[in-house]
Design brief:
Oligomer: single chain
Low-confidence stretches: 327-331
Shape: elongated
Number of strands: 13
Strand order of the largest sheet: 1-2-3-4-5-6-7-9-11-12-13
Mean pLDDT: 85
Helix content: 25-40%
Radius of gyration: 40 Å
């Protein structure tokens, strides 16, 4: 092809006077240019024709690829129709969905996690998931994955509607940033479901006086977790159905006043903080049905002599003593030996001690006096038990297991 384009002038860099003087008989330079232009036009036409053919081939390729995808989709669809999973009864599929839920106490409404994820698979799965109330009974509403706070009420209501009357476990965050200057707006959102709430966790982003609207008239409430201490007027009005109470931050304050005692009398599981060890014993006195107690005692200079107390129902006791060392003018004492000397717990099965040295002598007396079916003793880093002391405890209760806590508390 290239050789056909050769002319006597192809290798000429500059005009040669000798060549210019020669008259071409059959071919002139202009004739060569005209000829080449015709050749270029023909080549461009061929390229255009070839591109048209290539476009048609690409279009045909796309059509065949789309046809292939449709065929594969059809095969997949029909394979589902003969799959045992597709033919599972709705009740069985619903039961499987329940086992797909995360083990968290409160479920995050994230699209990558069940139950929301189950609504994204196919139409039937969505219908089954939305129609299974037990999938929508737990909600961590403090972590709604939405960019606009205006959508909070809609998302909250959509989730709770799907619970269809089942008991609810809710974790809520309340602040002016989240839902207005107080808790009345949140109460309005929850009002249609107020008879369903059995477990309620309220974060510590709310002033104490804003608890009242949220905690008023909760007839099914069995568990309450709060970030801050409640006013005694609010606590005293909690329903008799309440069994579990946890105070994350703050002290008991005046919650042990006589007006609150009917609420304490119904509780079976408590997790709280107190400044005075004597209030720990008073709490046991007004909680006759208590089975499990986690208590953080912030001790200062209170005496280690306490009145004897027998509690026949408590089975699990975790005590963390926090010694107040903020002032060099206060005589620091460890209240745990005195507490063990005062206590008799004939039903105790688990005891955990953190924050202070192990009171071995008082513990042995406590075991003998309580005659309890103790199974496990859990020791914090400070409460070290020597090998001889452990042997003495096992001699009293041969089946006793002594563990070291991995908690960083």
């Amino acid at each position: 092809m290239i050789s056909e384009l050769e002319t006597p002038y192809s290798r000429t860099t500059f005009p040669n006077p000798n060549h210019c003087a020669i008259e071409l008989e059959n071919q002139s330079i202009r004739a060569i240019i005209t000829d080449r232009q015709q050749q270029l036009d023909a080549t461009l036409h061929d390229i255009s024709s070839l591109e048209t053919v290539i476009d048609k081939i690409n279009h045909l390729h796309r059509q065949l690829t789309e046809q292939k995808d449709k065929i594969i989709s059809s095969i997949t669809l029909h394979k589902r129709l003969v799959s045992p999973l597709w033919r599972l009864p709705t009740e069985v599929l619903s039961h499987i969905f329940v086992h797909c839920l995360p083990q968290d106490k409160y479920l995050l409404p994230a699209w990558k996690l069940a139950p929301v994820l189950l609504t994204k698979i196919c139409r039937r799965w969505k219908e089954v998931a939305v129609g299974t109330p037990s999938l929508w009974c737990r909600l961590n509403a403090s972590s709604l994955p939405i960019k606009s706070l205006e959508k909070v009420p809609f998302c909250l209501d959509l989730w709770l509607k799907r619970s269809r009357g089942c008991l609810l476990s809710l974790k809520l965050i309340t602040s002016s940033y989240f839902l207005g200057p107080d808790s009345t707006e949140l109460r309005s959102l929850l009002q249609p479901y107020i008879n369903q709430i059995s477990s309620l966790h309220i974060s510590n982003y709310m002033p104490c006086d804003h608890y009242e609207p949220l905690l008023k008239d909760l007839p099914a409430l069995q568990e309450l977790i709060v970030g801050r201490s409640l006013p005694k007027q609010c606590f005293s009005r909690l329903p008799p159905t309440l069994r579990n109470f946890k105070l994350i931050h703050g002290l008991l304050g005046d919650l042990l006043s006589p007006s609150c005692e009917p609420v304490w009398a119904n509780l079976t599981n408590v997790d709280i903080n107190t400044y005075h060890p004597s209030k720990f014993l008073h709490l046991l006195r007004i909680c006759p049905n208590l089975c499990s107690l986690v208590i953080h005692v912030e001790s200062g200079d209170e005496t280690g002599i306490f009145e004897p107390l027998v509690h026949i129902k408590i089975q699990s006791l975790r005590v963390r003593i926090i010694i107040d060392q903020s002032s060099s003018y206060i005589v620091i004492s460890n209240p745990l030996p005195g507490l063990l000397n005062a206590l008799s717990l004939p039903s105790l099965r688990t005891l955990e001690v953190c924050g202070v040295p192990w009171p071995h002598k008082e513990f042995k007396s406590f075991l003998t006096r309580s005659n309890c079916p103790l199974e496990t003793v859990i020791l914090g880093a400070e409460a070290k038990m020597r090998r001889k002391q452990r042997a003495e405890c096992v001699a009293l209760i041969p089946s006793l297991e002594v563990l070291v806590s991995q908690s960083k508390e």
